[in-house]
Design goal:
Shape: globular
Number of domains: 1
Number of helices: 4
Structural class: mainly beta
Distance between the termini: 28 Å
Helix content: under 10%
CATH topology: Neuraminidase
Length: about 375
């Protein structure tokens, strides 16, 4: 499980930690043992992009990236989210151009945006706005959001999905995490797709005031989702439970994928590691946070719909450890997948027969791309 920054948000209400409120169909319950067993991917290196690859390019900016996306024509976009800079490479790994900058003007972002490719466009977004660029860096349009949104996914050129917090105001004290479909033109919600009380944070008291604490993903239950652009489906879950709702764009539940696995234990030593990530804390606060952390980890870190119609799920097996579970297009547990032991890439994505990821080397990230030799055998229904 990838370590992220820790954020502390001051809020004025308290709420329960989890519990899905969506109405699901009868779950397709899978046993622990996959139908086709366990398999290690046979992969061969295809492309590597490192600081040396970039030496001929954007000389006025330091080489670094922490996020990436690959386009439908194979172009690779590497994002330095802190400095708000994108480096573009072609499908052979040759540097093309760099664009995007930090600021408050049109097409500019303060820090830590996300990116997504869709058709011939690259979308850059944060919780305040969405900007659409051509691949050569020309700003095509900018959409300002009416309210803060997170986990934005572009569905098409006029629709997007996202998650946000809601406060029902019904005197229950609950805070909801909601996934909605939005219209880009009016930036208004079209449909609520999924709702849960799992919000990715827990509450402690500091000077008699409620404080919401957000640790690593996978520690505290949260709403996670993914959009399948081919099947036009949304996969959504309260990730504490291995129970994934398959929805259409009207929010109707078509099926539920469930795996009968026990959640991993969050050990005392791991809790201390989590608290250490907050830096220096006031007296007594470290103990309070440790006491409020759950005894078990969440079940799922993320999931990824594949072009084949299959679903790849990152199941949390231990603190900072996951395994890959592959499900068929009808929700059957097919394979437990492993990478070769000598491979350490993270932030993995699959693009047909290509697997991509980031490898950390001497405090500098390297983009790696591999061809899956056993693709047709594993990734087909």
């Amino acid at each position: 499980m990838r370590r992220l920054f820790y954020y502390i948000l001051i809020l004025l209400v308290c709420h329960g930690m989890h519990g899905v409120e969506a109405k699901d169909n009868i779950p397709l319950s899978n046993q622990k043992r996959p139908l086709k067993g366990e398999v290690t991917l046979d992969i061969s290196e295809n492309i590597t992009i490192s600081a040396d690859s970039h030496a001929i390019g954007d000389k006025n900016h330091d080489w670094y990236f922490d996020k990436y996306k690959k386009s439908n024509i194979g172009d690779i976009f590497l994002l330095n989210s802190k400095e708000v800079r994108i480096h573009r490479f072609n499908k052979e790994g040759k540097y093309i151009n760099s664009f995007l900058r930090k600021g408050e003007g049109p097409g500019e972002f303060q820090s830590y945006p996300n990116i997504q490719t869709k058709g011939d466009s690259l979308y850059v977004m944060d919780f305040q706005k969405i900007a659409e660029f051509s691949f050569d860096g020309k700003l095509l349009r900018e959409i300002k959001l009416k309210n803060p949104l997170s986990s934005i996914t572009i569905v098409n050129d006029h629709l997007f999905t996202s998650t946000s917090l809601e406060f029902p105001g019904d005197n229950t004290g609950k805070t909801l995490r909601v996934c909605k479909l939005f219209d880009m033109k009016n930036v208004d919600p079209v449909k609520t797709l999924f709702r849960t009380t799992a919000t990715g944070m827990f509450y402690i008291k500091v000077n008699k005031r409620p404080m919401a604490v957000t640790p690593d993903p996978g520690i505290i239950p949260n709403l996670i989702y993914a959009f399948d652009p081919i099947q036009k489906k949304v996969y959504a879950a309260d990730n504490y439970n291995y129970k994934i709702s398959v929805l259409d764009l009207q929010g109707k539940s078509e099926s539920v994928i469930q795996l009968n696995e026990e959640n991993a234990i969050l050990k005392p030593s791991h809790k201390k590691d989590i608290v250490a990530g907050f830096g220096k804390l006031p007296p007594g606060l470290e103990k309070q946070i440790i006491q409020n952390l759950p005894g078990k980890l969440c079940a799922i870190q993320r999931f990824l719909p594949l072009p084949s119609g299959q679903l790849l799920v990152w199941r949390i097996t231990d603190y900072n450890k996951t395994e890959l579970n592959l499900f068929s297009n009808v929700g059957k547990f097919l394979y437990r997948i492993k990478l070769p032991k000598d491979n350490s890439i993270k932030d993995i994505n699959f693009y047909d027969e290509i697997i991509t990821g980031i490898e950390s080397q001497e405090e500098m990230n390297v983009y790696r791309e591999y061809k899956i030799q056993s693709f047709s055998k594993i990734f087909s229904n």
